[in-house]
Amino acid sequence: MNGEPERSAAPSLKPGVQRTRGWSRWRIGTPLVAMICGGLFVVSGESSQGTDLRPGRYDDLAGLVQSEATRYEGLSAKVTSLTEEVAKLSSAVEDDAVQRLQKKAANMRDPAGLTERSGPGVTITLADAPDEIIDATEGNRNPLVVHQQDIQAVVNALWNGGATAVTIQGQRVITTTGIKCEDSLVLLQGVPYPQPYVIEAVGDPGTLASAVAEDAYLQLYRQQSANPAIAVGWSFELADEVVAPAYDGVLRTSYARPLT
Question: Among residues 20, 96, 142, 157, which is most buried (max CB within 10 A)?
Answer without folding.
Answer: 157
